[in-house]
Amino acid sequence: MEGEQGSFQAEHEIVCDTLTLTEQRSLVFHLLYALDAFDYDISLESVVDNFAYGFNIIIPLDSNVYKTAAAVIQERDQLDALIIPFIENWRFDRLGVPTKLILRNALWELLHTKTDQIVIINEAIELAKCFAEKDAFKFINGVLDKYISPVEDT
């Protein structure tokens, strides 16, 4: 019986590199959320190990999912500083955690990947619809749109 259960788990392991890019972004969001919940006092590696153990999701340390999550975590203060000028009439510390994490991840992608800006924004909106506060997707869309739009001369 034990052998059967072990083989059942092995057959159902998910390697993050086999996921769609949309699913990978969602996984990055979940990693970021877990780290934020622990105030970044635990390592990304321990969260990845817990995902492998609890959800049978294998996230190799050389995968895009891991590298992206690690980079967003490392650059979170710089990303926040870039976001703040685009949140008119709102304080950054009042944003919900999911909204902050989605904005950080999308902004990191805009800065460090060649993915089309519209795709990044649309993916951020979809993540917000699933995981952020009600209507946060509109806020995220507005912030990211302002970020990518060139400043018009008056």
Strand and helix map with partners:
Blueprint: H1 2-11, E1 14-15, H2 21-37, H3 44-55, E2 57-58, H4 64-74, H5 76-83, H6 97-112, H7 117-131, H8 136-148
Parallel strand pairs: 1-2
Helix pairs in contact: 2-4, 2-6, 4-6, 5-6, 6-7, 6-8, 7-8
Your description of this structure?
This protein is mostly helical. The protein has two domains: 1-60, no CATH class; 75-154, NusB-like (N-utilizing Substance Protein B Homolog, Chain A, Orthogonal Bundle). Helices cover 66% and strands 3% of the residues. It is built from eight helices and two strands. It has helices spanning 2-11, 21-37, 44-55, 64-74, 76-83, 97-112, 117-131, 136-148; strands at residues 14-15, 57-58. Strands 1-2 form a two-stranded parallel sheet. Helix 5 (76-83) packs across helix 6 and helix 6 (97-112) packs antiparallel against helix 7. It is globular, with a radius of gyration of 17 Å. The N and C termini lie far apart (74 Å). The relative contact order is 0.12. Mean pLDDT is 90; it is low at 1-10.
